[in-house]
Amino acid sequence: MITLDWNKGSPATPGVYFLALTLGRHLGEYGIARWDNSLWEHAEPETILGWLPIEAMVAALPPDLKLKWKDANPLAPDWGFLLTESGIVFADWDGSGWNPTPQASILGSVSLGELLAKCQFNWPGTLEPLPESTTIDESSLTAWEEIPE
């Protein structure tokens, strides 16, 4: 388990943050959002249980983390994690380049989903367990692509 030092409330400075988000009393997920010093972009404030700067999350990743790194330039704009000669960094792909531009050569990239499939982080709060009588209709679930080892 990777232990993160979660924060509550709002960040003091604009930037990109790693979030723990509640999806109700029983479920939660991790995500990334930009804070502009007054509003969250891509996140509802009432769903945020905890946050930390994306750089702090990247710094907490173990050096021996085994990920399947892909071509450094994805087809569609997206946030991603880059493997560079000096380590893992976070950047935004705008369709033509990474922002910020890494100082070291890029060896590959991976999405947040691929990273989360290989990592287990601590949770900044408590989720209630699902009642024992709960059934999940699997036909209503979104299909996720299995990530090969």
Task: Name a few traits of the molecule.
149 residues, mainly beta, disordered C terminus
Q: Count of helical segments?
A: 2
Question: What class, by secondary structure content?
Answer: mainly beta
> What profile does the largest beta sheet have?
4 strands, antiparallel
Uncertain runs are 144-149
Global outline: globular
The level of helicity is under 10%
Calculate the mean pLDDT score and round it.
Answer: 78
Query: How much is the radius of gyration in Å?
Result: 17 Å
| Estimated share of beta-strand residues | 25-35%
End-to-end CA span: 19 Å
Let me know the number of strands: 8
> Largest beta sheet: what is the strand line-up?
3-2-1-4
Write the H/E string, N to C: EEEEHEEEEH
